[in-house]
Write a structure and sequence with these properties.
The structure holds two protein chains of two kinds. By secondary structure, chain A is mainly β. Chain A has no helices and eleven strands. In chain A, the strands form two sheets. In chain A, strands 2, 4, 5, 6, 9, 10 and 11 form a seven-stranded mixed beta sheet that branches. In chain B, the strands form two sheets. In chain B, strands 2, 4, 5, 9, 10 and 11 form a six-stranded mixed beta sheet that branches. A five-stranded antiparallel beta sheet of chain B has the order 1-3-8-7-6, with no helix packed on it. Classes of the chains: A mainly beta, B mainly beta.
């Protein structure tokens, strides 16, 4: 186990609603990245937080937003849900910044938008 | 330029055989290449990673071969076992900025007993 937990495990929402997904990283992991994994695809980078500040963002619209808290937890918020937002959402934490910092992935939250 | 192309999409191997998964990239700024293994219902887990200053890295039954001039790298799983049945993702990142991973599309490996 990676020590990274995510909640909830599954979620069903309807188009136009808002959703908050949560991630709890290992203690001491200052970096958290969020990825979207569509069915049959590789994870796509959404954004990254380092010590509670956004450190980069992928090609996702502003309705995807995030927060990182001092207690090593973080949130992904998605507003105005669209059908294409249906996917597995993964968070990954690492101790610091740097490409060789191993990213430890949680099991994901599977979101279905109807 | 940001893509990592992975093949094959799926692979069936007999127990004890060699599984080979290939990836190719365009962006020469990529200089870190991890491989992740994902079982159903789980998040990806790091298997092995390589930097382009070496042409091969081996850890147990898993070997990465790297061809910098061709911008290609591959994962070899020796003596494949049924427990290796999973989806494998290659990824790439740059040595600056967010160090985000660009993932391939995945290879679903099934090892027959």
């Amino acid at each position: 186990e990676t020590g990274v937990t995510q909640s909830p495990t599954h979620l069903i929402k309807t188009r136009g609603q808002q959703v908050t997904l949560r991630c709890s990283s290992q203690s001491g992991h200052n970096t958290v990245s969020w990825y979207q994994q569509a069915l049959g695809q590789g994870p796509q980078f959404i954004f990254q937080y380092y010590r509670e500040e956004e450190n980069g963002r992928g090609n996702f619209p502003p309705r995807f937003s995030g927060l990182q808290f001092p207690n090593y937890s973080s949130e992904l918020n998605v507003n105005a849900l669209e059908l294409d937002d249906s996917a597995l959402y993964l968070c990954a934490s690492s101790i610091g910044l740097g490409q060789q910092e191993t990213q430890y992935f949680g099991p994901g939250t599977r979101l279905l938008v109807l | 330029q940001q893509q990592v192309k992975q093949s094959p999409q799926s692979l069936i191997v007999q127990k004890g055989g060699i599984s080979i998964i290939n990836c190719a990239y365009e962006n020469t700024a990529f200089d870190y290449f991890p491989w992740y293994q994902q079982f159903p219902g789980k998040g990806p887990a790091l298997l092995i990673a390589i930097r382009p200053d070496v042409s091969e890295k081996k850890e147990g039954r898993f070997t990465i071969s790297f061809n910098k001039s061709a911008k290609q790298f591959s994962l070899h799983i020796m003596d494949s076992q049924p427990g290796d049945s999973a989806t494998y993702f290659c990824a790439a990142s740059k040595a600056s900025g967010t160090y985000k991973y660009i993932f391939g599309t995945g290879t679903r490996l099934k090892v027959l007993a």
